[in-house]
Amino acid sequence: MTAFVRTNGYAVSPRAILNDPWLSQLFADAPARTAEAEIRLDVEETPDSYLVRADLPGVPKDQIQVEINEDVVKITVEYKRESTSDAKALRIERASGSATRSIRLPVAVDAAKADAKHVDGVLQLTLPKQAPSTKRLTIN
Questions:
Q1: If we measure between CA atoms, which residue out of 87, 42, 35 comes closest to residue 58?
Q2: What H or E segment, with its residue span, contains residue 18?
Q3: For residue 75, which phi and psi values (nearest 5 degrees)?
Q4: 35-78 residue pLDDT tens
Q5: Residue 127: per-residue pLDDT
Q6: Which residues, in sequence order, are bridge partners of residue 115?
Q7: Most CB atoms within 10 A, among 74, 84, 112, 139?
Q8: What is the Cα–Cα distance from 82 to 110, expressed in whole angstroms?
Q9: Nearest of 136, 114, 135, 133 to residue 125 by alpha carbon
Q10: Distance (Å, rounded) from C-alpha 19 to C-alpha 23?
């Protein structure tokens, strides 16, 4: 006796699910996946400034760059991983490489009065708000 199986074209077999490349990557061993270099931060607003705190553990202050362009703040860091040449890596979970994070603030920042501190792996930026300027135009 012959059995007929009816499909609608969208049926997926269990074998196809197990051979899915996305699932294979998800359950791969750790050396195949490496951590992404990223910058996590908090932004707070006071009446006269913005306070930005960025977690940068293990990054010395000479490898941190901060750029301020009116209302955009850009933080760039270089994560470096030390390894011995004769050792074989069994697991790599710490990030390496460069990471950049840009944020747009609601009001422009006075870059000349901005202050940056790097204490215990946390970058602390104090960004004073720029005073609103008005210009009166003469009509010809």
A1: 35
A2: helix 14-18
A3: -115, 125
A4: 567 889 999 999 999 999 999 988 888 999 999 998 999 999 98
A5: 95
A6: 126
A7: 74
A8: 38
A9: 114
A10: 8
Question: Can you give the three-state secondary structure of 82-105, one letter per residue?
Answer: CCCCCCCCCCCCCCCEEEEEEEEC
In the chain, the N- to C-terminal Cα span, in Å, equals 97
The pTM of the whole model exceeds 0.85: no
Ramachandran angles phi, psi of 113, nearest 5°: -105, 5
Structure tokens at 103: 């944020």
The answer to whether the Cα torsion of 101, 103, 108, 109 is positive or negative is negative
For residue 131, give Cα distances in angstroms to 13, 16, 20, 33, 125.
Answer: 64, 61, 56, 47, 18
Is domain 34-128 classified as CATH 3.40.630.30?
Answer: no
- Give dist(CA 125, CA 119) in Å, integer: 11
For 45, the token pair is 């607003």
